[in-house]
């Protein structure tokens, strides 16, 4: 029959999310200006790779993974579209307050996904979703009240969130490769 074990697609999705989140939030903190690095990463790794990971979670029967990765992959693609469509002459630039509402909706979605991690997910995944909820809340508030300082604080939270997703991804890969805990991710409870 051959090998019927399916690979774990979560590390791919987590890396796409984590690395792209770090790049965007290096900009939000004010460390780097916004440029093509963020757009390219948002399309191909944060966007497309996460959607692939989500579709592979479907094959494994993981509704949470499917919903998370396809949704956040789509988040990155829509965010890139919001940013580049005006530059292409296809739409007016986003209204900052409406962008706050957009980010707020993603925060609500993320809060519900965070609650989903409480059932049986590793502690590190709970941390990723908890910090992402805070990130979206701060970004939404920062845009709604036109406060760049709040966006900068959100950027630092985003760096921590992205780094935690990368850590979790590498924990899952290395722990599986070595057949033991190399990077602790918090046992499922």
TrEMBL record:
One GO process term, biological-process aspect: succinate transmembrane transport
**Ranges annotated as spanning the membrane:** 12-32, 38-56, 63-84, 96-115, 127-145, 151-170
- Coiled coil spans: none
An annotated GO cellular component: plasma membrane
Compartmental location: Membrane
Stored InterPro entries: Gpr1/Fun34/SatP-like, GPR1_FUN34_YAAH, SatP
Keyword annotations from UniProtKB, A to Z: Membrane, Transmembrane, Transmembrane helix
Bilayer topology: Multi-pass membrane protein
PROSITE patterns from the xrefs?
GPR1_FUN34_YAAH
Q: Which GO terms describe its molecular function?
A: acetate:proton symporter activity
Please give the family membership noted in the entry. Belongs to the acetate uptake transporter (AceTr) (TC 2.A.96) family.
How is this protein named in the record?
YaaH family protein
Organism name: Buttiauxella brennerae ATCC 51605
């Amino acid at each position: 029959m051959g090998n019927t074990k399916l690979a774990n697609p979560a590390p791919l999705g987590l890396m796409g999310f984590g690395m792209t989140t770090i790049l965007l939030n290096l900009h939000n903190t004010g460390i780097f200006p916004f440029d093509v690095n963020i757009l390219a990463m948002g399309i191909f790794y944060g966007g497309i790779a996460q959607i692939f990971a989500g579709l592979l979670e479907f094959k494994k029967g993981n509704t949470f993974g499917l919903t998370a990765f396809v949704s956040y992959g789509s988040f990155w693609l829509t965010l890139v579209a919001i940013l580049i469509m005006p530059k292409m002459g296809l739409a007016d630039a986003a209204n900052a307050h409406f962008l706050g509402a957009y980010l707020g909706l993603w925060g609500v979605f993320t809060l519900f996904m965070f609650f989903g991690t409480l059932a049986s997910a590793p502690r590190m995944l709970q941390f990723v979703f908890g910090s992402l909820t805070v990130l979206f809340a701060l970004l939404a508030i920062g845009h709604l009240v036109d406060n760049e300082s709040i966006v900068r604080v959100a950027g630092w939270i985003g760096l921590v969130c992205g780094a935690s997703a990368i850590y979790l991804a590498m924990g899952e890969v290395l722990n599986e490769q070595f057949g033991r805990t190399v990077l602790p991710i918090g046992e499922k409870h």
